[in-house]
Design goal:
7-stranded antiparallel sheet; Pnp Oxidase, Chain A; globular
Length: 222
């Protein structure tokens, strides 16, 4: 099949786009309302976009509480959503009113951040403390001119990592089993069994071919 996206002429029961761009990391975003009420919500249009300085992005479908809060305060956190926290993460996706504390709704303890005011999920093995850099309204589809997404770009100013998740000087991503979002109601989980290492190719001496070292990684990014 082949179809144009403007008319959504895929002929399927559901739009396949999210299932094609998958899996996607989940940004579990915490903010504070003006009255101090914590807000916590998962966003599947989320990722890191730079490491010097470290920056992340997420996109909000419409002007949700997270967006309204962080535009006022300029701060948010992102906790890692894991297999053990999957049910709680799902609970925080409910579209409850702004005065509802999703930490309490999902039975989660909020831990204080060090560099920003919004808290993090205490049980999460890692969290990013962020300051807003910029928000950008994305173009709405012609058929729905009053809908659309807002892109949030944030600078990571502090990072929390549970010491138990550090092995041999590295954060053991697979061991904490982070969740990822796919299409429809589908999720995926990273596990030690599904993780593998593959080193980058290096340009050979002739400058026109490449070689891949099959030995153990020496810890140097090339």
């Amino acid at each position: 099949m082949h179809y144009d996206t403007e008319s959504n002429g895929h002929g399927l029961r559901h739009d396949p786009f999210k299932a094609l761009v998958a899996p996607r990391p989940i940004g579990w975003i915490a903010t504070l309302a003006p009255d101090g009420t914590p807000n916590l919500a998962p966003y599947s249009f989320f990722n890191s976009i730079a490491d010097k300085p470290p920056m992340v992005m997420f996109a909000s479908s419409g002007r949700k509480d997270s967006l309204e809060n962080l535009e006022r305060s300029g701060e948010f956190t992102c906790s890692l959503a894991t297999w053990d926290l999957r049910e709680a993460m799902n609970m925080t996706s409910a579209a409850v009113p702004p005065d509802v504390d999703e930490f309490r709704l999902a039975g989660l303890e909020a831990a204080p951040s060090r560099y920003v005011k919004p808290p993090r999920v205490a049980r999460s093995p890692a969290a990013l403390e962020c300051r807003l850099w910029k928000t950008l309204q994305l173009p709405a589809p012609p058929a729905h001119p009053h809908s659309g997404y807002w892109l949030v770009l944030g600078t990571v100013v502090g990072i929390y990592i549970d010491d138990a998740a550090i092995r041999d000087g590295r954060f053991d991503t697979a061991a904490v089993r982070p969740l990822a979002r796919m299409g429809y109601m589908d999720y995926a989980v990273v596990t030690p069994e599904t993780t593998f290492e593959m080193k980058r190719p290096q340009v050979a001496d002739d400058g026109r071919s490449v070689v891949v070292d099959t030995g153990a990684w020496d810890g140097v990014y090339r």
